[in-house]
């Protein structure tokens, strides 16, 4: 009995030892540890595979299988293989740098395991590149070139948003999407920047011209101030020199006077007082006057030299200032001429465009103007017919009136003839007549001009205005000389009433 128990105990310990050994063997052979950039997919006994990322786990040998998926970034260079037309029909090529990776979310990780399990990174990159290129082509066709070039981030976001659902269906995430460049064979992108370059160059040229103008102005002002200071200093120096020369002349005058007096006394002593006091005094006075005359001559020469130096310095300073000012004004005019020339070129281009528009507008107006011209021509013709009839009736009336009508026209035109003949003389400020010229001759010349006008009228029309006028005036004088017959009164003349008495 005791041996049987010992036997069962040994059996239990053996079974327990085998079980422990089996567990240790399973643990040793099935223990796995995944790094943070790798996903272990353990499948076999479970309905849903077990995923290990950055942690340890156990797989049962012979019953479960371990597969790996890399979670590292996959850099992809996405380029359009051929030119793609934009929304404004410009063919371009796009180059972008994209980073994708297998998603670590459970649902997307399961999709990635189904699509890329045990696949190399190059295969995953090639599949993602095809999807990204297709989406990039789609977005290029929806946007205009200028919009894509000016806002690359918007273009990248649209492509990323458009491609994310397609890549998510494969278990991939887009980490970053950066547009490298846009290329077109027609240099359209390069020409887009020409307008901005021209504007920047224009503004820079205008700013440079303004700055140079201000610099030239400041330089001219500083030069003027320097010249003024130099002239003032030269003038002050000349004044000091003049004062010094005058003081020296005064001292020299006193010295010469003392010396003359000593010389005179010495000569008087030498001559042993052979001359009287009056002669000695006279000689001394004569010598003094001669010295004074010489001194005044020296003073005049010093003053003349000082004034000459002062005037010369001032003239040179003014000439230099005018020259600097003229140079600055010349430079400023050159800059203004260049700026004006550039503005005129721009205005000419604008006027050319405007002229094309006006040409089309005038072509549209031409038809209306032609119809309006026909109507106006008809009105003018009717008016001309009416005026011709009026002129014909006026001619008939003048034929009936005869010479009286001619004289009436002559008298009406005579003031204008005289006025026009004398009109040149009104513009003369002063008349100088030589020989026998006087006011009577001037009047005679004016009347001679009127006579020449009437003679010209006689030669051109055959009407002798002098003869007509003489006949007309002779007839008027004859009629005035004959007394008019008294006409019989049909009614007696009423007596004149007083203004203050009412009529009965």
TrEMBL record:
Top-level lineage group: Bacteria
Gene Ontology process terms (BP): protein localization to plasma membrane
Record keywords, A-Z: Coiled coil, Membrane, Transmembrane, Transmembrane helix
Chain segments annotated as transmembrane: 7-32
Entry keyword annotation includes Transmembrane helix: yes
Main location, first listed in the record: membrane
Family listed: Belongs to the band 7/mec-2 family. Flotillin subfamily.
Organism: Ruthenibacterium lactatiformans
Residue ranges that the Swiss-Prot or TrEMBL entry lists as coiled coil: 272-348
Protein name, as recorded: Flotillin
Band domain span: 29-204
Gene3D superfamilies: Band 7 domain
InterPro entries given in the database record: Band_7 (IPR001107), Band_7/SPFH_dom_sf (IPR036013), Flotillin_C (IPR031905), Flotillin_fam (IPR027705)
Subcellular location(s) per record: Membrane
GO molecular function terms attached to this record: protease binding
Pfam families for this protein: Band_7, Flot
Region spans: Disordered: 480-504
One GO cellular component, as annotated: plasma membrane
């Amino acid at each position: 009995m005791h041996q049987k128990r010992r036997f069962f105990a040994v059996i239990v310990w053996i079974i327990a030892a085998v079980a422990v050994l089996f567990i240790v063997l399973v643990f040793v052979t099935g223990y796995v540890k995944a790094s943070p950039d790798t996903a272990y997919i353990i499948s076999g006994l479970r309905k849903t595979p077990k995923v290990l990322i950055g942690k340890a786990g156990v797989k049962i040998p012979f019953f479960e299988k371990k597969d790996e998926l890399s979670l590292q970034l996959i850099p992809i260079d996405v380029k359009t293989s051929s030119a793609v037309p934009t929304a404004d029909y410009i063919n371009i090529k796009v180059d972008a740098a994209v980073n994708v990776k297998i998603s670590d979310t459970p649902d997307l990780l399961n999709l990635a395991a189904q699509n890329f399990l045990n696949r190399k990174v190059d295969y995953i990159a090639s599949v993602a590149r095809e999807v990204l290129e297709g989406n990039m082509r789609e977005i290029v066709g929806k946007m205009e070139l200028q919009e894509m070039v000016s806002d690359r981030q918007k273009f990248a976001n649209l492509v990323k948003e458009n491609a994310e659902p397609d890549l998510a269906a494969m278990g991939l995430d887009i980490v970053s999407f950066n547009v490298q460049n846009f290329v077109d064979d027609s240099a359209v992108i390069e020409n887009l920047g020409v307008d901005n370059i021209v504007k920047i160059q224009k503004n820079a040229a205008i700013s440079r011209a303004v700055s140079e103008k201000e610099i030239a102005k400041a330089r001219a002002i500083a030069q003027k101030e320097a010249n003024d200071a130099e002239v003032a200093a030269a003038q002050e120096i000349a004044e000091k020199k003049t004062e010094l020369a005058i003081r020296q002349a005064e001292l020299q005058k006193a010295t010469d006077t003392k010396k003359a007096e000593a010389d005179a006394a010495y000569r008087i002593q030498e001559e042993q007082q052979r001359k009287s006091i009056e002669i000695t005094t006279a000689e001394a006075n004569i010598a003094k006057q001669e010295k004074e005359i010489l001194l005044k001559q020296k003073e005049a020469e010093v003053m003349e030299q000082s004034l000459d130096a002062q005037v010369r310095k001032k003239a040179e300073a003014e000439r230099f200032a005018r020259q600097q000012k003229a140079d600055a004004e010349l430079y400023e005019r050159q800059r203004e001429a260049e700026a004006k020339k550039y503005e005129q070129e721009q205005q000419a281009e604008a006027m050319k465009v405007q002229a094309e528009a006006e040409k089309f507008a005038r072509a549209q107006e031409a038809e209306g103007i032609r119809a309006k011209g026909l109507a106006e021509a008809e009105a003018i013709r009717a008016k001309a017919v009416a005026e011709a009839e009026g002129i014909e009736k006026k001619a008939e009336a003048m034929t009936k009136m005869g010479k009286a009508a001619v004289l009436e026209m002559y008298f009406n035109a005579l003031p204008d003839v005289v006025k026009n003949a004398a009109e040149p003389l009104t513009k003369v400020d002063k008349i100088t007549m030589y020989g026998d010229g006087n006011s009577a001759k001037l009047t005679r010349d004016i009347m001679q001009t009127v006579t020449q006008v009437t003679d010209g009228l006689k030669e051109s029309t055959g009407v002798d205005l002098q003869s007509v006028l003489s006949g007309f005036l002779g007839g008027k004088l004859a009629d005035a000389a004959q007394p008019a017959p008294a006409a019989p009164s049909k009614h007696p003349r009423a007596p004149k009433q007083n203004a203050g008495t009412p009529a009965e």
